[in-house]
Protein backbone atom coordinates (compact mmCIF):
# COMPACT_ATOMS: atom_id res chain seq x y z
CA UNK A 1 0.00 0.00 0.00
CA UNK A 2 1.45 3.38 -0.93
CA UNK A 3 2.13 6.06 1.63
CA UNK A 4 -0.30 9.01 1.31
CA UNK A 5 0.84 12.55 2.07
CA UNK A 6 -1.39 15.62 2.11
CA UNK A 7 0.37 18.72 0.82
CA UNK A 8 -0.96 21.39 3.16
CA UNK A 9 0.29 24.18 0.87
CA UNK A 10 -2.40 23.24 -1.65
CA UNK A 11 -5.11 21.95 0.68
CA UNK A 12 -7.88 23.46 2.77
CA UNK A 13 -7.65 23.23 6.54
CA UNK A 14 -10.42 20.58 6.54
CA UNK A 15 -8.76 18.39 3.87
CA UNK A 16 -7.59 14.87 4.52
CA UNK A 17 -5.43 12.65 2.33
CA UNK A 18 -7.49 10.82 -0.28
CA UNK A 19 -7.36 7.07 0.43
CA UNK A 20 -5.53 5.10 -2.27
CA UNK A 21 -8.51 2.72 -2.46
CA UNK A 22 -10.71 5.64 -3.59
CA UNK A 23 -8.12 6.70 -6.16
CA UNK A 24 -8.01 3.14 -7.54
CA UNK A 25 -11.80 3.07 -7.84
CA UNK A 26 -11.71 6.36 -9.74
CA UNK A 27 -8.85 5.15 -11.96
CA UNK A 28 -10.78 1.97 -12.77
CA UNK A 29 -14.05 3.80 -13.47
CA UNK A 30 -12.65 6.61 -15.64
CA UNK A 31 -13.41 6.37 -19.35
CA UNK A 32 -10.87 8.78 -20.84
CA UNK A 33 -7.24 9.27 -19.86
CA UNK A 34 -4.54 11.59 -21.16
CA UNK A 35 -1.17 9.97 -21.87
CA UNK A 36 2.02 12.03 -21.93
CA UNK A 37 5.11 10.49 -23.53
CA UNK A 38 8.46 12.03 -24.46
CA UNK A 39 9.54 12.43 -28.08
CA UNK A 40 13.13 11.49 -28.99
CA UNK A 41 14.03 15.21 -29.11
CA UNK A 42 12.71 15.72 -25.55
CA UNK A 43 9.43 17.46 -26.40
CA UNK A 44 6.28 16.11 -24.71
CA UNK A 45 3.50 14.39 -26.65
CA UNK A 46 0.00 14.25 -25.12
CA UNK A 47 -2.96 12.27 -26.42
CA UNK A 48 -6.31 11.06 -25.06
CA UNK A 49 -6.97 7.33 -24.95
CA UNK A 50 -8.90 4.64 -23.14
CA UNK A 51 -7.38 2.34 -20.53
CA UNK A 52 -8.18 -0.29 -17.94
CA UNK A 53 -6.95 -0.71 -14.36
CA UNK A 54 -5.85 -4.29 -13.65
CA UNK A 55 -3.27 -5.97 -11.44
CA UNK A 56 -2.13 -2.72 -9.82
CA UNK A 57 -1.50 -0.86 -13.09
CA UNK A 58 -3.17 1.20 -15.78
CA UNK A 59 -3.06 -0.50 -19.19
CA UNK A 60 -3.36 1.19 -22.57
CA UNK A 61 -2.81 0.09 -26.14
CA UNK A 62 -1.48 1.72 -29.27
CA UNK A 63 -0.58 0.82 -32.81
CA UNK A 64 3.11 -0.04 -33.21
CA UNK A 65 3.71 2.87 -35.60
CA UNK A 66 1.79 5.53 -33.68
CA UNK A 67 3.72 8.46 -32.17
CA UNK A 68 3.26 7.21 -28.60
CA UNK A 69 4.63 3.75 -29.44
CA UNK A 70 7.61 5.29 -31.24
CA UNK A 71 8.25 7.54 -28.22
CA UNK A 72 8.14 4.57 -25.85
CA UNK A 73 10.87 2.79 -27.82
CA UNK A 74 13.37 5.40 -26.62
CA UNK A 75 11.87 6.51 -23.29
CA UNK A 76 9.36 4.47 -21.25
CA UNK A 77 8.60 7.31 -18.79
CA UNK A 78 4.95 8.37 -18.99
CA UNK A 79 2.26 10.28 -17.14
CA UNK A 80 -1.41 9.28 -17.30
CA UNK A 81 -4.06 11.71 -16.08
CA UNK A 82 -7.82 11.54 -15.67
CA UNK A 83 -10.50 13.45 -13.81
CA UNK A 84 -13.28 15.97 -14.28
CA UNK A 85 -13.10 19.02 -16.45
CA UNK A 86 -14.60 21.17 -13.73
CA UNK A 87 -13.08 23.59 -11.25
CA UNK A 88 -15.08 22.99 -8.07
CA UNK A 89 -15.99 19.30 -7.98
CA UNK A 90 -14.49 15.88 -8.51
CA UNK A 91 -10.98 14.52 -8.27
CA UNK A 92 -8.20 14.75 -10.84
CA UNK A 93 -5.61 11.96 -10.78
CA UNK A 94 -2.07 11.81 -12.11
CA UNK A 95 -0.09 8.56 -12.37
CA UNK A 96 3.64 8.64 -13.11
CA UNK A 97 5.59 5.53 -14.05
CA UNK A 98 7.22 3.54 -16.83
CA UNK A 99 5.19 1.94 -19.62
CA UNK A 100 6.15 -1.74 -19.71
CA UNK A 101 5.10 -3.79 -22.74
CA UNK A 102 2.71 -6.67 -22.00
CA UNK A 103 3.17 -9.59 -24.39
CA UNK A 104 2.16 -12.63 -22.32
CA UNK A 105 -0.84 -14.05 -24.17
CA UNK A 106 -2.67 -15.28 -21.05
CA UNK A 107 -2.38 -11.85 -19.48
CA UNK A 108 -3.39 -10.19 -22.77
CA UNK A 109 -6.54 -12.33 -23.01
CA UNK A 110 -7.54 -11.17 -19.52
CA UNK A 111 -6.90 -7.56 -20.48
CA UNK A 112 -8.85 -7.94 -23.73
CA UNK A 113 -11.82 -9.21 -21.70
CA UNK A 114 -11.45 -6.24 -19.33
CA UNK A 115 -11.43 -3.79 -22.27
CA UNK A 116 -14.60 -5.26 -23.71
CA UNK A 117 -16.33 -5.42 -20.31
CA UNK A 118 -15.55 -1.76 -19.68
CA UNK A 119 -16.01 -0.24 -23.15
CA UNK A 120 -18.38 -2.65 -24.91
CA UNK A 121 -18.21 -4.89 -27.98
CA UNK A 122 -16.81 -2.16 -30.22
CA UNK A 123 -13.60 -2.62 -28.24
CA UNK A 124 -13.26 -6.38 -28.73
CA UNK A 125 -9.68 -7.54 -29.21
CA UNK A 126 -8.31 -10.92 -30.14
CA UNK A 127 -4.81 -11.82 -28.96
CA UNK A 128 -2.22 -12.72 -31.54
CA UNK A 129 1.59 -12.73 -31.53
CA UNK A 130 1.92 -10.96 -28.17
CA UNK A 131 -0.44 -8.08 -29.00
CA UNK A 132 -4.09 -7.17 -29.42
CA UNK A 133 -5.55 -7.76 -32.86
CA UNK A 134 -8.68 -6.22 -34.31
CA UNK A 135 -9.86 -6.75 -37.91
CA UNK A 136 -10.64 -3.04 -38.37
CA UNK A 137 -7.99 -1.38 -36.19
CA UNK A 138 -5.12 -3.79 -36.82
CA UNK A 139 -2.41 -4.69 -34.32
CA UNK A 140 -2.08 -2.88 -30.99
CA UNK A 141 0.74 -3.13 -28.49
CA UNK A 142 -0.35 -3.19 -24.84
CA UNK A 143 1.51 -1.38 -22.06
CA UNK A 144 1.17 -1.47 -18.27
CA UNK A 145 1.98 1.54 -16.10
CA UNK A 146 2.42 0.64 -12.43
CA UNK A 147 2.40 3.86 -10.41
CA UNK A 148 5.78 5.04 -9.15
CA UNK A 149 4.21 8.24 -7.82
CA UNK A 150 0.60 9.39 -8.05
CA UNK A 151 -1.23 12.59 -7.19
CA UNK A 152 -4.86 13.27 -6.36
CA UNK A 153 -6.35 16.74 -6.62
CA UNK A 154 -9.60 16.83 -4.66
CA UNK A 155 -11.67 19.84 -5.76
CA UNK A 156 -14.45 21.71 -4.02
CA UNK A 157 -14.87 23.23 -0.58
CA UNK A 158 -12.52 20.69 1.05
CA UNK A 159 -9.87 20.81 -1.68
CA UNK A 160 -6.66 18.96 -1.19
CA UNK A 161 -3.58 17.55 -2.89
CA UNK A 162 -2.57 14.01 -2.00
CA UNK A 163 0.68 12.40 -3.09
CA UNK A 164 1.15 8.64 -2.99
CA UNK A 165 4.66 7.17 -2.94
CA UNK A 166 5.06 3.55 -3.90
UniProtKB/TrEMBL annotation:
Q: Which UniProt keywords apply?
A: Oxidoreductase
Stored SUPFAM superfamilies: FMN-binding split barrel
Q: Which residues form the Pyridoxamine 5'-phosphate oxidase N-terminal domain?
A: 22-147
Any Pfam family hit: PNPOx_N
Question: Which InterPro entries did the record assign?
Answer: F420H2_bilvrd_red/Heme_oxyg, Pyridox_Oxase_N, Split_barrel_FMN-bd
Superkingdom of source: Bacteria
Entry protein name:
Pyridoxamine 5'-phosphate oxidase family protein
UniProt organism field = Streptomyces bambusae
Amino acid sequence: MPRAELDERYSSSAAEPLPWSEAVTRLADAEVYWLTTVRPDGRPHVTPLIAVWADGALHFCTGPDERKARNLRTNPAVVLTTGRNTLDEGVDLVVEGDADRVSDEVRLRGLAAAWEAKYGPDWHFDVQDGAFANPQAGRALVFAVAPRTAFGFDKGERFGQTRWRF
